[in-house]
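Fold Annotation — chain and its backbone
Next Lines — sequence and tokenised fold

***
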Amino acid sequence: MKVGVVIVGHGSRVPETRGIYEAIASVAQEKSGYEVRVGYMKHHRPNLVEAVQGLIEEGFRRIVVVPLFIVPGLHVRDDIPVLLGKKEGEVPEFGYSRVNAPPGVEIIYADAIGADPRLAEVVLDRVSKALNGSKA
């Protein structure tokens, strides 16, 4: 069974931010062999629903949605589960509606990034580089 992954990013009005999520998706795809896409909550396309629907249209029957958020706030707890049909509630006003998954398609909602200890390694790497006068 083909497995697809959608990394969910918030998105930003600053156009240059878009490539960051795509770079993470590219590395994840290379390391895993899964088809990895990015879906945005706001400001960029594809939005979350478009990314999931795109995988469904391409024949993926198992899709894992990973919110690339550290803090499990409103998007992680409510908006994304509602958009995926995993939780009842009012669809957030982002200009798009819920995923329409046909029978036989499994959408799995993974945990947010949260306080993963590996993030401390990234922080310490940035500290080291800053102390040495270089950028990340």
